[in-house]
Amino acid sequence: MAVRLAGRLRRVARRFHRPVRTRPVPRLARAAGPRPPLDHRWCRRGVGPLRAGAGRPRRPRPARHPPAGVWLRPLGHAHRRAPQWPAGRGTAMTDRSSVILGAYGRHLLRERTMQPVLVIGPTGSGKTTTTVHPTLLAAWDESAVVWDFKGSVTEDTSRARTRFGDVIVLDLARRGGSRYNPLMAVRPEPYLVPDCQHAARVLTEGEQEGHWRNAAFSYLTGVFVYLLTAAADSEKSLAGARRHILLGDDGLTLMLAEGIHPTAQRAAQELWDKSLALAEERGTGEGEGKGRPGGGSAPPDKSLHYRKSVYVTASVLLAEFEDPVMEAQTAVSDFSVSDLVAGERPVTLYIVARPLDARRLRRVFKLILTQMVDFLTIDRALADDGRARRWRLLVVLDEFLQFHLREAAEWIKYVREYGIRLLLLAQSLWEVEEEYGRGLTANCRLVVFRPNSSDEAERISRMVGEAIEEVPTRSTSKGLLDLFPTVSRGVRVDRRPVLPMHEALEMGGDDLIVFGYGKPIRATRLHPYADPRWRPLYGRATAAWTPNPDANRWFGAVGPAAEGGMPDAPAAPRRPGKPPRLWT
What we know:
Elements: H1 2-16, E1 69-72, E2 78-81, E3 99-104, E4 107-111, E5 117-120, H2 127-139, E6 143-148, H3 152-161, E7 166-170, H4 192-204, H5 211-230, H6 238-246, H7 249-255, H8 262-286, H9 302-316, H10 324-329, H11 339-342, E8 347-352, H12 355-360, H13 362-375, E9 393-398, H14 408-414, E10 420-426, H15 429-436, H16 438-442, E11 445-448, H17 454-464, E12 466-477, E13 486-497, H18 501-505, E14 511-515, E15 521-524
Parallel strand pairs: 1-4, 5-10, 5-11, 6-8, 6-9, 7-8, 9-10
Antiparallel strand pairs: 1-2, 3-4, 11-14, 12-13, 14-15
Helix pairs in contact: 2-3, 4-5, 4-13, 5-6, 5-8, 5-9, 6-9, 8-9
Main location: membrane
Organism: Azospirillum thermophilum
Region (Disordered): 28-71, 282-303, 559-584
């Protein structure tokens, strides 16, 4: 009985463990004609043309093309695409208008959206050679504005930029290059006064808040309006504004003449009235009808003293234009802001400023950059001169913290809607957040190189995030007389940092991390100087920019001063209700 039962159990087990045999699918004859092409869109590995009648996908053969590039989706994930490496003859490397962030294995890591990019890394980490150089050499084929703090970017990438369009090198501290007059960017009526106020506001930013700053702002606005509408062409510049302010009351008299723009007249009248009011107020406090002690001479004219204080405050804001080279480079404009986005060809503008010149001319460069961004974010379809926009604009600012641009945090929020993309470079993440807050870093794709301090390493470790691990657990509790033990199973959730702080500090010099809206990507830096595929693209441009005569839109405006005649000096205006004080 037991033998028969054991045999039956063996037969049942053999029946259930018998391997399932399938018939091979017969291969049909291939249809006549050329073989269907492979699908290289790489949606998922293994997807390709179907066999004739088989009904199952066939694994595609590896494509024989140069290494594929890795692009970033808007969510931060990488996917493959097949660009072309730059050949020695200088062909384009990618599809149009992308920003290179580094290398991902053997592939290039690109950002093809209009999201701003913030690159953080200490000095010598390779920020410029990894992001700026490859992007300008072969990835971005539209217009660009590049702040060249060291002068090396112009020397290395300007020749390659001539393949995409024209090149302008603006060096305000050296003679012979292209010129730019910020006052020529002011639009005509009805935008004359707002644009003059815009220039005066940028020039007075950074000064201590108070009465003298406000008085200088008001007077500078009136001077700019007067020069553009009534002065000679040779005086329609910031250097001419400084000369007009240094005229003192003579310049004030010119602004009060008949036929001058009402805004300029009101600015001069306001300065005159405030000076008289202050003189009366202080004269009453000292006692009426009393002379100076120790002599019979009259007390000083306090109204003139007040006006001189305003003149000095306003002229100090334009002290850089005492330099004759600076005056010559800003007397006329060889290009306009609209040429960057509405020209026949894309334009790459290099603003060259060596460290000494950058500190000395910081206020002027800040005005130029602010004008270019603000005037190009007025209309999506048209430039500021009415021409249709044709090109997008890449703004590259290396060491942008030195400008103290309060507008940078606001630019991040809306410039992408106007076809402007920002590529910002800085040395420390803490300095950026201290200057602009976390709103700027939260709206940028962040590229972080090897940190140089424990604080930066700890911040990077927190940004990478934590990994959640589920560890199965098993516990046994013995019952009565150890005969019936109880086994309980569960899951323990452990959290650990994906990149601990010590590993962040130990990152190699070629490592970098890209943060976005998705998972962080650990990539490596590029060495284009040592790569034979990049070396032929380096060099300085030799072709010069042809000046645009339409850039000087305010030349030819005729006014009393422009005609050569000096207006009659008006009588000193009196404050209504109070007669002028008579000094004895």
